Amino acid sequence: MSSIPKIVILGAGYGGILTAQRLQKELNYNEADVTLVNRHDYHYITTHLHMPAAGTDTIEHARVSISKLIDEFKIDLVKSNVKEIRLQDRKIILEDGTLSYDYLIIGLGGEPETFGIPGMLDHAMTIRSINSVRLIREHIEYQFAMYKNDNKRNRINFVVGGAGFSGVEFVAELADRIPKLCKEFDVNPKNVHIYNVEAAPSALPGFDPELVEHAMNVLKKKGVTFKIGVPIKQCLPDGVIVGEGEKIDAATVVWTGGIRGNALLEQAGLEVMRGRVKVDEYLRAPGHEDVYVIGDNSLVFNKEGRPYPPTAQIAMQQGVNCAINVVAAIRKKERQPFVFTSKGTVASLGKGEAIAVVGGKKYKGWKAAQLKKLVDLRYLFIIGGIPLVLKKGRFFG
C-alpha cells in the first residue's frame, strides 16, 4: 500500500487551478498523488462571463480546457460532481465514486446570495457558469424575437439586480449589445429599457466616488437607468417589486447582488458565515490542519478587521500560497502565512471604456480599458503562457 500522501483539490476555478499548477511545479516525482476534481473538463474565466452573457463576445474566449493547463502525468483530473465532504473519514463522496485524502483543498466556488428576497431563486438568472451565460444570451435574443410577434413591452425591459462589479460590467455590455439587437430584430431602441437596481447607497461600493460618478455617467449615456439606494423587495415571473412597492415590468431579471460560499462546507460540519469558512493565517479550516479553504469558500480579513471581497485576484494568490503550505507540510517545513497584496482594481464599462485604480493612481476611459485588457492577458499568461494569450486573448475591441 502506497504511503505517498494524497492531495485532493476540489474545484478548478482561479484558486484551484493556481494550486494545481504550483503543486506540479513544487513537488518532486512520486512525492505526492494529486487529484483535481471539477464538474467540467474546462476552467472558465469568471471575470469574463458578463461579455458572452450579453452576447458581445463568444463563450470560447471565457473557457480553457483543463488538460491544456495541467500536466496530466503529475495531476489526475476527475470530472465529477462533489456530493459530500466527510471530514471525519477524510473522504470525498462524488456522484460516481469516492476519494480519500491526506490533504484537502476546497475551492468549489460560490452560489448566488439572494438575501432571502422572495422569488429571486425562482425567477432570476445569474452569471455563474458557462451554461448560465448561454441561457441568458439566448433568453435575451428570444425576448426580442417574441416582441416582434406579441408587442409586449416588458419583453424588452431588462432588470439587473446589484450594481457591484458584476452588475455594472454586465449592464455595460448589454447596453452595447442593444443597438445591434434592435437593428437585427427591427425594434425601436427607444422602446428598450435597462434598469440597474442597487440597495446600497452607491453603485460600485468601495470604489473611488469620482470614478463611480464617471462610470454612472458613461452608462446613463448608453441608456441605463439607475435605481440606487432602492432594494428589490420581490422578484416575479414578469418583473420586480422595488422600494416602496413600485413594480418594474420585465421579462428578464439578472441577479448579480451577491455571492455566498458553497453549501457543502456547512453540510460537512465546518463553521461558516454566509457559506464561507473563516480560515487561519495558513488558509486552513479551524480544527482541521490538513484542510485548506480558498476562493469564494474562504473568509479572510484585512488589518482593519473587514473581510476581503471574494475576487479572482485573492483566489489566485491563495492558490499559490496554499500549494506552498501543503508542500511545506509534507516536507515538515515551516508554512507561510497568507498575506493578500492588491494589484489594483479595474471595472469594464463596455467597448473602449473602464475605470481603474492601479498603484494608487486613478484611470478612466480608454486608458483604463487598456489596463483591463492587460489584466485579462496577464491572467492568461500566468495559467497558460504565450500560447494561451495568443489563442484566447482579446487585443482589440
TrEMBL record:
Belongs to the NADH dehydrogenase family. Its cofactor is FAD. InterPro entries: FAD/NAD-bd_sf (IPR036188), FAD/NAD-binding_dom (IPR023753), NADH-Q_oxidoreductase (IPR051169). Pfam families: Pyr_redox_2. This is NADH dehydrogenase. Residues 6-319 form the FAD/NAD(P)-binding domain. It comes from Paenibacillus tundrae. Signal peptide: none annotated. Keywords: FAD, Flavoprotein, Oxidoreductase. SUPFAM superfamilies: FAD/NAD(P)-binding domain.
